[in-house]
Amino acid sequence: MEFFQRIGDYKLEYARITAFGSTRKPGIPAERDSNLKSIIESGVTAAALFGKSWDFHVLRALETTLEENLAMVRESIMLLKEHGLEVIFDAEHFFDGYRNNRGYALSVLQAATDAGADWIVLCDTNGGTMPWEIGSTVQQARQLITTPMGIHMHNDSGCAAAGSLTAVRNGCIQVQGTINGYGERCGNADLCVVIPGLELKLGQRVLPAGNLKKLKGIADCVNGIANMPPCSNQPYTGKGAFTHKAGIHVSALLKNSLTYEHISPEDVGNRRRVLVSELSGISNIICRAGEMNIDISGNDTAAVSAVREIKELENRGYSFEGADASLELLLRRASGKKHSFFTVKEFRVVLNKNDRGEVSAEAMLEVVIDNMVYRTAAEGTGPADAVENSLRRVLTGIYPETEYLRMTGCRVHVLDAADGAASGIRVITGWSDTSDSWNTIGVSGNITEASLLAIADGINYLLIKKRG
Fold it and tell me: Are 255 and 266 in contact (CB under 8 A)?
């Protein structure tokens, strides 16, 4: 109730707030039902009211008669209509009910229609109905019911989006669902799949012109609000929806994107991504280099060299899919471009533990900058922190840009034979400055060296950005 009070302070351009609740309880007059009273008091202009349409549920869950359930549907809708609300009647478990007692399920729809419902929504509450069943059942219901119809699908059999689209093809003009498919058990119909399906595949106008391009943005926004990790393989809006890895795919994409993409990623606010890995060919390298403004398209030697090095590094445990900055440095090196402003010639890291049980590290480095050798040392809370502090001690005075650079994360992955690489350590470091963020990678049999490689790439990438 607090939500309904507070949302009234917002001016909503497209959305309409709808209260959701059930029909009256058995044996209680509609005007005395606390749930219906709350819907009326919420101040909404529309209500979605669910009622049983499966005789099994009426008899076993509600423990009332079939006749009383029909009265509950009629009287609840009539009460809300008397108070001027638009009423959407959700026929709960309709498809199970239709399958087991067709006549009664349809009589529930008729009762809602007779009571003045503005919408009749057929619900696959258990989520187990197949799309072909949805289509034929909607057609049968459409022959009896003239009230506008909608569809409400759960995803327990992985068919919520397909079932929703099938229902629209067979006469439904409302789809109930959620952004990213969030919902009970396996979720509801994913509107981020249904909406582009309706607009791009069925030619149905759903959103104001141009708004489909905002789809990925809204999907990401809701992920953030829900504190849920984004699903990379989500159709249309997932990070992987237009990501290509195999060389033969990328080669064809460079000629015509329709070869491996069913729509343009920009249509839904997404973008194409080309990965480089052990599956890469020259086409992947040329495409990624172009995205990074590194022209190696006419340099077969550079492309072949880059492909060979990437395959060798991935065999040792590297993975450039999440470390674009390290990849860019590699491609710059292959193309003959400047890729490093310093190198670490030697290093030594010592761990210390005092009598209070506190552990610290000290890193001593020999750094080469423009053929000049600098020796530097610094302490840190651990090896990676000590290495970064030691580097900063010498670099900040020569490259002031590094003052605002921050390492935002450090992830360590122990490799073994199952990873397709020799036993070792993979370190991924995250970085940011005042305007950008990036990731780098280092792999070694020693965690300190792996950290040093990733840290050196992170700082060198900043200097490439700033100094070219």
Answer: no
**What CA–CA distance (Å, rounded) separates 247 from 275?**
9
327: CB partners within 8 A, 6+ apart = 276, 288, 310, 320
- Report the distance separating Cα 111 and Cα 78, nearest Å: 11
With contact defined as beta carbons under 8 Å apart, do 280 and 247 qualify? Answer: yes
What is the SS3 assignment for the chain?
CHHHHHHCCCCCCCCCCEEEEECCCCCCCHHHCHHHHHHHHCCCCEEEEEEECCHHHHHHCCCCCHHHHHHHHHHHHHHHHHCCCEEEEEEECHHHHHHHCHHHHHHHHHHHHHCCCCEEEEEECCCCCCHHHHHHHHHHHHHHCCCCEEEEEECCCCCHHHHHHHHHHCCCCEEECEHHHCCCCCCECEHHHHHHHHHHHCCCCCCCCCHHHHHHHHHHHHHHHHCCCCCCCCCCCCCCCCEECCHHHHHHHHHCHHHCCCCCHHHHCCCCEECCCCCCCHHHHHHHHHHCCCCCCCCHHHHHHHHHHHHHHHHHCCCHHHCHHHHHHHHHHHCCCCCCCCEEEEEEEEEEECCCCCEEEEEEEEEEECCEEEEEEEEECCHHHHHHHHHHHHHHHHCHHHHHCEEEEEEEEEECHHHCCCCEEEEEEEEECCCCEEEEEEEECCHHHHHHHHHHHHHHHHHHHHHC
Is the pTM for the entire model greater than 0.90? no
CA dihedral 351, 355, 357, 358 (to 10 degrees): -50
Q: What is the mean pLDDT of each run of 10 residues along the chain (468 residues)?
A: 92 93 97 97 96 97 97 98 98 97 98 98 97 97 96 98 98 98 96 98 94 95 87 91 73 75 94 68 73 72 80 84 88 86 93 88 94 93 91 92 90 72 80 89 92 95 90
For helices 131-144 and 102-114, angle between their N-to-C axes, nearest 10 degrees: 50
**CA gyration radius for the chain?**
30
403: exposed, middle or buried (Cβ count in 10 Å: 0-12, 13-18, 19+): exposed
Instruction: Go through 213-240 and write b for each residue having 16 or more CB atoms within 10 A of its CB, e for each that does not.
Output: eebbebbeebbeeeeeeebeebbbbbbe
Q: Which residue bears the tokens 């209070």?
A: 356
